[in-house]
Amino acid sequence: MIKKAREAILHCRRLRVLTGAGISAESGVPTFRGANGLWGKYNVMELATPEAFQRNPELVWKFYNWRREVIAKVKPNPAHKALVDLEKIIPDFLLITQNVDGLHQQAGNKNMVELHGNIWWVKCTTCEYLAQDRSIPLPSLPTCPKCSSLLRPNVVWFGEALDPEVLDKAIEAIENTEVLLVIGTSAVVQPAASLIWLAKEKGALIIEINIEKTEASEIADITLLGKAGEVLPQLVK
Ligand code: BV8
Ligand code: ZN
């Protein structure tokens, strides 16, 4: 299977990659639904929502400050690095990530979109202010330097629409690809996961890398069971 996947990837002109929290697991970033659950005592579904922020912005910022602290200490793993190598050899490459940890950019990927935003960016709840801010921790209630309103993390919360331009770019790329490599995602969160079914519908070859079967396994042409940090480098070398 590895050989078949390697051939398909190395001989294709157009390749898209969809990554989820599993690709950062070996860097030490907890996944959302993994055995250790997400972020210890915090329940992401309760906190990563506009309602939670409305109700208790201090608690939501505590959650994000804690995740920023965890993520600041980790670095890209061999799976992230393999995608940088892949980008160098595939003529038409796009990385579509659900992750907000910024590890793909840190590893060196350039041609990519972040469907759910980036934890290192903050935006104003009132004006257009949007900036990268890597200070750790941010004040418990950070305010906008332009209009003094409350700042929020520049991530897409549950119940919020994805940035239409970002989603359109991902859909357009998914609609014309030869191969879609799906790495480390439970394929549960929508509309990101629907990109896998769209690629299948458009005739792409679906290759999945995960430590266990997922919702997408039934439509994957090749499912490679194993850790992304161990499997992915074998596909690229
Ligand atoms: C929206 C940022 C509506 C925040 C995140 C149908 C259509 C549309 C929406 C919905 C729908 N059904 C349900 C919904 C609502 C919801 C949703 O999908 N809920 C799920 C839980 C059912 N969707 C939304 O709310 C979306 N918004 O649709 O709004 C709308 C439309 C128009 C106008 C107004 C409103 C927004 C979704 C975005 C939420 N934000 N992140 C933050 O991070 O703080 S999503 C969050 O989950 C992360 O981004 C994460 O990446 C993502 C997906 O999870 P995974 O990445 O897959 O991670 P998970 O832990 O689940 O799985 C890890 C996998 O890795 C596992 O399979 C594991 O086996 C594997 N693994 C582990 N270790 C390894 C490994 N694999 C390989 N190697 C390893 N070492
Ligand atoms: Zn402002």
From TrEMBL:
The residues that the entry says bind Zn(2+) are C124, C127, C144, C147
> Can you name one GO molecular function term for this protein?
protein-succinyllysine desuccinylase activity
Give yes or no: UniProt keyword Nuclease. no
Q: Which Pfam families does the entry link to?
A: SIR2
Return the domain comment text from this UniProt entry.
Answer: 2 residues (Tyr-64 and Arg-67) present in a large hydrophobic pocket are probably involved in substrate specificity. They are important for desuccinylation activity, but dispensable for deacetylation activity.
Entry similarity comment: Belongs to the sirtuin family. Class III subfamily.
The name of this protein is NAD-dependent protein deacylase
Organism, per UniProt? Answer: Desulfofervidus auxilii
- This protein's gene is called cobB
